[in-house]
Amino acid sequence: MEKFYAMVPEITLTFFFITYFFQGLLLKNRKLNGITVIIISILTALTLFLFHGKAFNGMFVADNFSQSLKLVFLINLSLTILISLKYEKIRDELFYEYSLLMILSTLAMMLIVSSKDLIPLFLAVELMSLCLYLLAGFGIKDLLSNEASIKYYILGSFASAIFLFGIAGFYGLFGTTDFYGISQILKNQKDITIYHFMGTFAILSALSFKAACAPFHQWSPDVYEGAPTTITAFMSVGPKAAAIGALGRFTFEALISKPELWLIPLSTIALLTIAIGNILALRQNNIKRLLAYSSIAHAGYVMLAVLAASPEGLSSLVFYMIVYAFMNLGAFSVILALPKGENIEGYKGIYHINPVIALSMLVFMFSLAGIPPFGGFIAKFLVFKSVIHSGYVFVALIGIIFSVLSAYYYLRIVMKMFFVILSEKNYIYNFVSFNLRLAIILSAIFIVISGIIPDILI
Question: What is this structure's pTM?
Answer without folding.
Answer: 0.93
